[in-house]
From TrEMBL:
Residues 114-227 form the ATP-dependent DNA ligase family profile domain. It is an enzyme of class 6 (ligase). It catalyses: ATP + (deoxyribonucleotide)n-3'-hydroxyl + 5'-phospho-(deoxyribonucleotide)m = (deoxyribonucleotide)n+m + AMP + diphosphate. Belongs to the ATP-dependent DNA ligase family. GO terms for molecular function: ATP binding; DNA ligase (ATP) activity. Keywords: Ligase. This is DNA ligase (ATP). Its EC number is 6.5.1.1. InterPro entries: Adenylation_LigC-like, ATP-dep_DNA_ligase, DNA_ligase_ATP-dep_C, DNA_ligase_ATP-dep_cent, DNA_ligase_ATP-dep_CS, NA-bd_OB-fold, OBF_LigC-like.
Length: 354
């Protein structure tokens, strides 16, 4: 492979802001695997956000990219999987599997797509220092004949359209809106863009905690919600605490600490079969590797309010939640899935086309 921009390249990143800034280039924020694709003739490399190769996990995309991208180019974008008219991040994570046969099966069952939104090189020309507005024009021209599963991300400079996308696209599983200055150069691993994400709050049961990697202080709180059958389901964690606060939490939570998980709603967490019928902490995962998934059980009597962006398949927080406050006025039994706001549905095909 011999390109004007060679792997590895870390993608340009975004910083969070509360509102959509005016006077910029706007795109939807895709909820998938960030990927930079390098093509030089028949050679294809797909680099992840951390620059690890994703080629072996998406064989169907390798062939599609070879057929649809320009002969020599470097393209920044997102790998996504759609099911039922919306993005499915869980289906995407299933692809990171050590068995090639399993990857092949999943590729046939739920093929992935690539959504392109930036162009880093074309033919013999590096484009990192070219303004975004010009790179976007070159991208649209270079991929003008492309068909599914390779798409060009919809974009606009109209802030009212961006605001409408922010409200509508969540129903298709998208994550918010990204804003980019029109004169922006491409800065690998630099936070030069802006992301505006949805934020909601929920009252959740604190049913345990994990210790911090640095020592005997709280690393993360384990959160639960009661389902319609009265079972407490693990829905995620909140973890953004200062070290001083982590130390204080050990003392505050001590009265609720249980000697063992016996009698706890998540007592069966260590049994792999138990995860098939309930959401419990410590679920087996190829992401966790040798990570210690043990946790300290607490009597599920304490309620806190957390901020979250959205739910994955209506079952768990897609990202780490953010602690807001304790809620002594709420009973644990009142913390149910019914309180969660459900985005209005929006078909992904209306964004990318069939």
């Amino acid at each position: 492979m011999d390109l004007p921009v060679m792997p590895p390249v870390k993608p340009m990143l975004a910083k969070s802001v509360a509102r959509i800034p005016p006077g910029m280039h706007y795109e939807a924020k895709w909820d998938g695997f960030r990927a930079i694709v390098f093509r030089d003739g028949d050679e294809i490399e797909i680099g992840s956000r951390s620059t690890k190769s994703l080629v072996r996990y998406f064989p169907e995309l390798v062939e599609a990219l070879r057929e649809r991208l320009p002969e020599r180019c470097v393209v920044d974008g997102e790998i996504v999987i759609a099911r039922g008219g919306r993005l499915d991040f869980d289906a995407l994570t299933e692809r990171i599997h050590p068995a090639a046969s399993r990857v092949t099966t999943l590729a046939g069952r739920n093929p992935a797509s690539f959504v392109a939104f930036d162009l880093l090189a074309l033919a013999d020309e590096p484009l990192l220092d070219v303004p975004l507005s010009d790179r976007r024009t070159l991208l649209e021209t270079a991929l003008s004949g492309s068909t599914a599963p390779v798409h060009v991300a919809p974009a606009t400079t109209d802030i009212e359209v961006a605001r409408r996308w922010f409200e509508q696209y969540e129903g298709a599983g998208l994550d918010g809106v990204v804003a980019k200055p029109l004169t922006l150069r491409y800065g690998p691993d630099e936070r030069l863009m802006f992301k505006i994400k949805h934020e909601r709050t929920a009252d959740v049961v604190v049913a345990g905690y994990r210790l911090h990697k640095s020592g005997p202080v709280v690393g993360s709180l384990l959160l639960g919600l009661y389902d319609s059958g009265g079972a407490l389901q693990h829905v995620g964690v909140c973890a953004a605490f200062t070290m001083k606060r982590r130390e204080e939490l050990i003392a505050e939570l001590a009265p609720l600490r249980m000697e063992s998980a016996t009698g706890h709603p998540w007592a069966a967490w260590a049994e792999e079969s138990a995860h098939e019928s309930a959401r419990l902490p410590g679920a087996p995962s190829r992401w966790s590797g040798k990570k210690d998934l043990s946790w300290v059980p607490l009597r599920p009597d304490l309620v806190c309010e957390v901020a979250y962006e959205h739910m994955e398949n209506g079952e768990r927080f897609r990202h780490t939640a953010r602690f807001r406050r304790w809620r002594p006025d709420r009973t644990p039994e009142s913390c149910t899935f019914a309180q969660l706001e459900e985005p209005v549905g929006y078909d992904l095909a209306d964004i990318l086309g069939p």
